[in-house]
Amino acid sequence: MDAQSYIKGLEDEILHHEAVHHPFLKRFASESLSLEQIRTFGLQHYQLVRIFVNYMTNLLPLIPDKEAADLFRTVFDDEFGQHTIFRSHPALYRNFLKGLGLPEEAWGRVAFLPETTLYIEAHKKLTRDEDFLIGLGAVGPAHEFAIPTMFEYLISGFKNNTDLSDEVMEYFDFHIVQDKEHAVVFNQLIIRHIETPESQKLLREGAMRCLAFRKAFWDGLYRAVFGESL
């Protein structure tokens, strides 16, 4: 299969994956939520946000050609905030946590769910110890392409249950737009390296492994936020 067709098929598969339409997301979007439930979500999810740039730092040196690495750096710069750390994605997310009334010590001392720890450690390995195409599958299609769909559910939950301002919500609203742009950039990068069945298999493996850990993360949040297991 040619590279462009393969990417399109992989994106279709991702859009139908349970992690992208998880029961946690559907329930979060549709039910009445307390502030404490939203805070529980926010503190766990922040742990994924603050570490994401580390995955990109791991992966960048593994990219074998300069043009692809330059494309990758454009996404890296957006994540890091480009001109100021106060516009980094973790900084924007901390504004959201402050909007929920959480003090700084809360997000530094939160006890990780087992699924949160599993997710973080797994992605360190995916982007550091595996073939670079596995890492690209994880941070590209399974992150940048999938996140806008998942975030639509979260934004619905926030709007239904809070009066948070657009400024406080910027992290989530911003990702609906920016990650769609990032997905296009990643595809431009990926298409240079998946012309064989073997390389396509590696890309998909990384994406599917990432989504499996994302599903487990949502499973953990379902239990923590709603007080019951699936």
Polypeptide structure, described:
This protein is an all-alpha fold and 230 residues long. The chain has one domain (3-226): Heme Oxygenase, Chain A. Helices cover 75% and strands 0% of the residues. Helix 3 packs parallel to helix 7. The longest helix is centred in the last third of the chain and has 30 residues, at 197-226. The mean pLDDT is 89.
CATH hierarchy: architecture: Up-down Bundle
CA distance, first residue to last residue: 38 Å
The third-level CATH topology is Heme Oxygenase, Chain A
The first-level CATH class is given as Mainly Alpha
Radius of gyration: 17 Å
Mean pLDDT: 89
Molecular shape: globular
Helix tally equals 11
Poorly predicted residue ranges:
none
Q: How are the elements arranged and paired?
A:
Elements: H1 3-15, H2 23-30, H3 35-59, H4 66-80, H5 89-99, H6 104-109, H7 114-128, H8 132-145, H9 147-161, H10 170-190, H11 197-226
Provide a brief overview of the structure:
With 230 residues, the chain is mainly α. The chain contains eleven helices and no strands.
Features:
mainly alpha; 75% helix; single chain; 230 residues; Heme Oxygenase, Chain A; 11 helices
